[in-house]
Design brief:
The chain is of the alpha+beta class. It is built from 2 helices and 4 strands; from the N terminus they run ββββαα. Strands 1-2 form a two-stranded antiparallel ribbon. The protein has a two-stranded antiparallel sheet with strand order 3-4.
């Protein structure tokens, strides 16, 4: 687990979530959605046939994203 500051408190985040700025993050596709939601304070759906960020992207795009593609 890596740590980064967040507002007044510090919180632990998975090392697969890297915040670049206030509005930009890089997240490994193998990261469980539960971890993404907690680390970035998101509400991504966890109730489908997927459990990782990559699974959600493939399900929503209907294809595998190309290398370097922003989604």
């Amino acid at each position: 687990w890596a740590t980064r500051p967040r507002t007044a408190a510090r919180k632990s985040y998975p090392s697969s979530v890297c915040t670049l700025s206030r509005s930009s993050s890089v997240v490994a596709g193998t990261t469980p959605l539960r971890d993404v939601n907690r680390a970035l304070d998101f509400d991504l759906p966890e109730d489908g046939d997927w459990n990782t960020l990559a699974g959600l992207c493939i399900a929503r795009l209907g294809r595998i994203p190309t290398n370097g593609e922003t989604v």
